[in-house]
């Protein structure tokens, strides 16, 4: 089953690379379950990012940062339902619903917990799990206005277990991830807590049966 799932998302990434303009005229306006996206912090203009580099402090789990580099494949995230709850591919994500974000390259989920972040001392954000399976620390509530998450709108991601908001701290790391920005959890809903989907492969429910894939932008 994991092999099939990995092949499915690999196919989506390949389609994005080969057919960057396919479906541009009829682009999907919602963020949907099963889509592969990049998330931009609208304040600092950096994309949510991870890689197989562990924190040297705190939990020691896989680090999560933000990067100014637009084309990095390590900034892709799969939108999926929370543990034990189905999320139909192509179905718009409802405002107020909870999701998981799986890092495509390492198959770990965006995660948080009661550890301090290494630079600012806020709440640590990490990637956790094995082949997309983790725990409730991977659950994030989509805070947005209206009925569903619109691609053109910025949203907040509130950690279900701790109530913290996903944020960029403005502080940057040295080696081995030189220049990448610290990503943290903060208690306030003001500040650098707004994120917008950018490049990606957006699934559209009516097109799934016809095997159509809508892609946007020309960069990975």
TrEMBL record:
<keyword id="KW-0677">Repeat</keyword>
<keyword id="KW-0732">Signal</keyword>
<dbReference type="Pfam" id="PF02815">
    <property type="entry name" value="MIR"/>
</dbReference>
<feature type="domain" description="MIR">
    <location>
        <begin position="28"/>
        <end position="82"/>
    </location>
</feature>
<dbReference type="InterPro" id="IPR036300">
    <property type="entry name" value="MIR_dom_sf"/>
</dbReference>
<protein>
    <recommendedName>
        <fullName>MIR domain-containing protein</fullName>
    </recommendedName>
</protein>
<feature type="domain" description="MIR">
    <location>
        <begin position="90"/>
        <end position="145"/>
    </location>
</feature>
<feature type="signal peptide">
    <location>
        <begin position="1"/>
        <end position="25"/>
    </location>
</feature>
<dbReference type="InterPro" id="IPR016093">
    <property type="entry name" value="MIR_motif"/>
</dbReference>
<feature type="domain" description="MIR">
    <location>
        <begin position="146"/>
        <end position="200"/>
    </location>
</feature>
